[in-house]
Every structure is written in structure tokens, then in C-alpha cells.
Amino acid sequence: MAGNTAGLSHDDLWPRAGDWPNADSINGDLDLVLVGLPTASTSLSPTRADATPDAVREALRKYSPFAHSADADLDVLTLADAGNVRDPDSDEDAATQRVADVATRSRLVVALGGDNAATVPAALGSWGSDVSTAGLITLDAHYDLRDGRSNGSPVRRLVEAGLDGRRVVQIGIQDFANSRAYAERARDLGITVITRDELLRRSLDDVMAQALEIAGSANGPIHVDLDVDVCDRAVAPACPASTPGGIAAHELRRVARVAARHPSVASLDLTEIDATADAADGRTVRLAALCVLEAVAGLALR
After folding, report:
1. How far is the C-alpha of 200 from the C-alpha of 240, rounded, in Å?
2. Taking the mean position of all CA atoms in its chain, how far away is CA 282?
3. What is the pLDDT of residue 59?
4. How far, in whole angstroms, is CA 249 from its chain's centroid?
5. Which stretches of the chain score pLDDT less than 50?
6. How distant, in Å, are the alpha carbons of 141, 177, 227, 293 from that of 136?
7. Which of 101, 137, 149, 247 has the most beta carbons within 10 angstroms of its beta carbon?
8. Distance (Å, rounded) from C-alpha 280 to C-alpha 203?
9. pLDDT at 1
10. Beta-carbon neighbour count of residue 217 at 10 Å?
């Protein structure tokens, strides 16, 4: 999908990422598909997270499709963009179906939120009709186990849809950002919780290896929710609920690559960014765009 190249330099030897063709225009199987799920209307905090999918697409143009550390040219993969689902808050079933349609054709779906409500259609669409073997990994400062329907409830809603809590791993849960009641709810559901403090004592690769083993223990598809408010507020100012002391940008990028490299990971999402509230340098949206590219690099290494 064509992006705005105004103000960007041109170099025939330095191609730009993004501008991937429309998924519906390509026949056959795909490696990775982007799909925008601009959820925002049920957010617990006022947000324009619905503006973020297009902002991330634009930010991709600032980067190259070459991953030096992996010695991989990402544009050798068949990459496509399925566009944005119209009003996914009002018609969640249609959003789920759109994800399902592209998931049947691709090895990995990357859903661009939107607030964290986008995780429900992203996960259910990629898992298909049988949730009984599915797994979920969240990178999030919060449990997202609230009652009702909001960006604070996707994990609870997925469990109620049939996801076994024993195959849910929540990484980066923050002190002072949750209540005792939801911590107890996570424990009662059998959810594995790896707090931000624990991340300070363990290697990220070790944590992800544990998470992927637990989430994939029934040999089903895994969805990875990258709620960017897990990051330190200095690197994620566009996330309304990010806190000082969250994880670093390079850690979130590492998770995106490690997750996408795993053959059981069918989908991941990037959520909770309000592109209209970003710093002047666009650092939060840029981080999300780099996580998309990290996911492509991880897929190239499968």
C-alpha cells in the first residue's frame, strides 16, 4: 500500500520498508500479513489509538528491509497488507473473520491496534474455531482480566472463549499498576506471571523460552500480544498507561523477533499506542514499526 514518501531521501541502493501490496491482490500463500484493527471506543482512558495502524505503516518507510544481525533481506519474503478493518469495536465478529481469512493464507499475521481490545479478534481469528489447544503470551504491564468489555479485559474474554489459563503467560506485570484482586484472578486461572522485577534477574531469551513452552504445551497456535505500555514511559510516551521503569525498547524488539521465529506463533499484535499523543520525534510509533520489522526478521529465520 503506497505510503507518503515526501521528505524522505531516495537511494537506489537503500530500499525502504513498508508499502507492501494489498493482500487481496496476491494469489497464493503469503509469509506475513499486516492487518489494522483500529479499536479505541471501549478504552478505559481517552485515546485515539484508532489512528495508530496508519501511523505505523508510515513509520515503516523510515527503515530498511535489511536485518544485518540476521544477514536477511526481508523483502525476499512474500509480505502483504490487508488494510484496516472498519470499526472493529462495533463489529468484532467481522474483525475476527478478517483476521481468520488472512491467517489461512499466511505463516504469520501481525495485527496493528488500536487499543488492547484488538487482541480478542486478533487471537481468535488466528486460532480459528478450535481454541482448546491455543496459547497466549502477553507483554504487558497489566493483567487485562477486568470484567466487562474494554481494553482492560481481553485476557479474561479469551479465557471465557475457551482459552486454558494454564497456557497463558503474562510477562512484564508491573507493581502499582494492578490490584490484588486481579493478581488473585490470574493465579486462580492458572496463568503464569513473570513480573517486571523478575525480568531484571533473568535473561529475556530464557523467559521467552519458558513462555513459548508453556503457551505451546498443547501443540496449538500461539498468539503474542505486545502491549507497548509494558515499556518504560521514556520510550513509550504515546501509551496512556505506560509507567516509568518498564522494559527497554530493545527488549520489546527482541521479544518480537524471538516470538516470530517460533514455528507455533501464528500471530502477534501491537497495541495501546495513541499515535496522536506521541513525542515530537514519534518514538513510540517508530518502536512499533521496528517491532513489525523484527517480526519479519524472526519469520525469515524460521
Report:
1. 23
2. 18
3. 98
4. 14
5. 1-4
6. 15, 21, 13, 21
7. 137
8. 32
9. 44
10. 13
